[in-house]
Each structure stands twice: as C-alpha cells, then as structure tokens.
Design a protein that fits this description.
Length: about 475
C-alpha cells in the first residue's frame, strides 16, 4: 500500500505518512475553515515537492480567484500551468460528469498530456444541483469518484457544512476513503478563534485521533499534532549525570541531574529559581553542552542583565552556538503550537540541557483546566526525555503557600522536585533548598542552607562527619 504525502507536514504525521494513493479524501468544514486551502496545498506541494502534476476543478471560483488566493502563500499556479504541471478549471458538475463519460473527454486529455496524479474537486456539495433526490446524489458521487480513481488519480474533494455543531454523517462520508474535518471555532474561555483539523475516518490506514490545532502560516497551512512525543525514549536510569553548576546541589541529588530526566524547580518569587536555571545552562556551556532557554515572562534582555550580574554572558554563549533563547510571551501562546516549536528546537539544536522559565506561565492557556495542565505537562516531559535532554521546569507558588507546584499536578510527572524557600529570620531572610523527590537517586533529604553569591548559587550541606561545606 503506497502512501503519498499531502505536503502539509503536521497532517502527514497525523496520517502516519500521508494518504493512500488512489484513495478519495473528503475535507469538510464551515465557510472560512480552510478547506480549499488544504486542497490547493495538496496540489501545489504535489507538483513542487513530489513531482506529481495535478488538476484543480472548481464549481464556484474562477481561476483568477484561485491564483490570487494561492499567491498569498507564495504559490504561483500560473507559472505551474505554463510548465504544464497544473490545470485550473472552473466548470459545473454537469460538464464534469459529461466529460468523464466521454472516452476522449477533456479530463482524459489533460491526464495524458500532463501525467496528472492528483485532483482537487471544490466542492462536491454542488452535486446538489444535479438532483434533489439524496439517493440519486449518492449514486452520482460514487460514479464521479470511481471514474476519477479509475484514471489513476488520488482525489481530494471539499464539502461545505453549515454548522460546527451536530455535523452528523452525510452520504459523502460513507462513499470516500478518508474524512478530514477542519473547523474554526471560538474558545469559550478566551473568545479567541482557534482552528482545528481532525481525521474522522481513514480506510486502510492508521491515524492519530483527536482535534489538532492548525493555522495559516506564510507558506500555507501548518498543523501541530497533539502527539509530538518521539516513540523511542531514553531511559533516565541509564543516562550520565550532568553537573548542575551548584556543587552542593549535585551532592544532594546524588551526583547531579541525569541526562534525559526532568526536574521541577519550585518556589516563591525571589527565591532564586531563574538564577539556578541559568547556572545549570552556564555549567553545560562550560562543558561544551548546548542549551535551550524558553522564556514566557521576562524578555531575553532582562534575563541577560540578570545573568551578567553573576558574570555570565548569555549573548556570547548564543554567538558561540552553545545557547538558544526562545521568547514566547505567555499571553500570546498557543500551547499546541508551542509544543511543536519545542520539539523542533530540541531536534535542530541538539540541546542536552533545557530550562522552561516558567512552566507556570507556559500553561496559562489551560490554567483553569487542571486535567489539561497535567496532559500538556506530561507531553512536555515525555518530549524532552524522548529527545535526550535534561529539563528543568520552573514553577511558581504563592508566597506563604505549602504547595509544591502551581497547578498541583506537575510534581507527579517529573523525575525530581527541588524546592526553594525564603523565610524571615528577624530583620534578615534565610534561604533554603530541599530535594523533595529524586526518582532513582539516593538523594539527601531535608532542607539545607542556600546563598545567592556574586558568582551564583551556593548550597551548603553537612557531611556525615565534619563541618558544613558547599564543595565550591
């Protein structure tokens, strides 16, 4: 069974490699959801990336309109027509039916002349003009699709629906091989509109279920699958130990943070979470290990100033290719898209260390949905592990709170939890650190003294014998 890519990377991942050659695919949705764009991208990418000529048959838009819409994404259909790789035709269902019934019709002429392998019909809803009888329309649809498939074409047809709710099952969904639904709905919490794509049916092939976020990018539709986690994941227990840059903390963690593991760094504002995260990345850079820093609240410039106060030059590390900083303000963040960005950054940079500052802000979109916060955190943890990175997730907790994490679910998903505290002692404040959890490690329990010094964080511990030390 041969599969052909649609040319939409995320959609091809959802479809486990693409669609079966020679199948008929239905793309349905309300007006403006992106049906026609999916179809044109299928044809355009088929030509440009896979060398497969294609036909575009429209029952309502003139070629000039399709040229204009395609040009918005940088797709030059006119040029491809001039190269005899694409044909754009505006006609009626009656004419198309008649041409397919002729052995030497125009469709057959184009197929032979171009070697066409793909076709877009926009849209099959116009078959309604041929008959008011549902059964007769079903027969017409089956005969149309079969005629195209018999000519060696992989067929993509669009269909309009009138409402996002209660689509039901139309006869078109039964007669095609796969059904893809696109939607553009308003979020009940924020009021912002979000686009989703869902594969409802894929005869003869597997797919990733669920509603996946997509958007219109500068070069076409971009789909962000829910399951971005690699199938082969590293096992933390078998990984090397990475020094955190804080010798005393390494001692508490039984040698450091394991490669391909996750650590939740939790504390109130001002307890040193960002500093410790930066120190972890700085230590990695000194060892030649690449790092990633995701920022959701403070800007890169603000964090550079913090780092500079300890003698750490983040701009230099970036210039040397040892650090990549990604700034994604939480108020503008789409979690589904951002998980994809995290995956791409980890794969492209090959980073061994990654810090998320903060996980609390990153999950803002689902802050009122604890189950979604848990699901997204789980995806993120498995993603970083699967790509072999040691990850520190910074969590913010309210002042005076006994909570371990922001949403009460994060600590159950990570390998280790480190708590930072700041308590008043007369006119001064005392800082403390505790390894609350360290899966698979013989960690030192209890709270230990911590200081923020001009060279970074120091953690003090008392060995079995002797005075308190920090091993700096």
């Amino acid at each position: 069974m041969e599969k052909i890519p649609t040319g939409i990377e995320g959609l091809d991942l959802i479809l486990m490699g693409g669609i079966v050659r020679g199948h008929a695919i239905l793309v349905e949705g309300t007006p403006g959801a992106g049906k026609t764009t999916v179809g044109i991208q299928f044809i355009h990418e088929g030509v440009v990336r896979y060398g497969e000529a294609g036909l575009i048959i429209s029952f309502e838009q003139f070629p000039a309109q399709l040229y204009r819409d395609a040009a918005n994404f940088g797709w030059d259909l006119r040029a491809l027509e001039a190269q005899n790789k694409v044909r754009v035709c505006c006609t009626s269902p009656e004419v198309l039916r008649d041409q397919l019934q002729k052995p030497d019709g125009l469709i057959d002429e184009w197929i032979q002349e171009m070697g066409a392998r793909r076709i877009l019909i926009d849209s099959i809803s116009h078959l309604d003009t041929l008959s008011a009888d549902p059964m007769e329309r079903r027969v017409l649809a089956v005969s149309l699709l079969n005629a195209l498939k018999q000519r060696g074409l992989t067929v993509l047809v669009t269909k309009e629906v009138t409402s996002e709710e209660g689509y039901g099952c139309s006869f078109e969904e039964y007669v095609v091989d796969a059904v893809i639904r696109v939607s553009n709905t308003a979020d009940q919490e924020t009021g912002r509109r979000q686009r989703h794509v869902e594969v409802l049916k894929s005869r003869g092939q597997d797919h990733i279920s669920g509603r996946h976020y997509f958007r219109f990018g500068p070069e076409g539709i971009e789909v962000f699958p829910l399951q971005v986690v690699p199938t082969h994941q590293a096992v933390p227990g078998e990984a090397a130990l990475l020094p955190t840059g804080v010798a005393g903390l390494d001692h508490l963690l039984d040698g450091g943070l394991r490669q391909a593991s996750s650590l939740l760094l939790s504390g109130e504002s001002g307890t040193g979470k960002t500093i410790l995260g930066l120190q972890f990345l700085q230590e990695g850079a000194s060892l030649g290990e690449k790092g990633l820093l995701f920022l959701y609240q403070e800007t890169p410039e603000q964090v550079q100033q913090v780092a500079a106060s300890f003698g750490w030059d983040l701009a230099h590390l970036e210039a040397e290719g040892l650090l990549t900083v990604v700034y994604a303000p939480f108020a503008e963040l789409s979690l589904a898209e951002h998980l994809w960005v995290v995956r791409v950054q980890l794969q492209e940079t090959g980073a061994r260390r990654v810090v998320f500052d903060s996980l609390s802000a990153m999950l803002h979109e689902v802050s009122q949905q604890p189950h979604m916060a848990k699901e997204r955190t789980d995806q993120l943890v498995r993603l970083t592990k699967g790509l072999g990175a040691a990850a520190i997730f910074i969590a913010e907790v309210p002042a005076g709170s006994s909570r371990i994490s922001t949403y009460g679910v994060e600590e159950t998903l990570v390998d280790s939890v480190v708590l930072l505290r700041s308590t008043r002692d007369g006119l001064r404040r005392k800082r403390g650190i505790e390894v609350f959890k360290a899966r698979g490690a013989n960690h030192v329990m209890g709270e230990h003294r911590m200081r923020i010094t001009p060279s970074g964080i120091k953690v003090f511990y008392r060995p079995a014998r002797g005075a308190e030390r920090d091993d700096a």
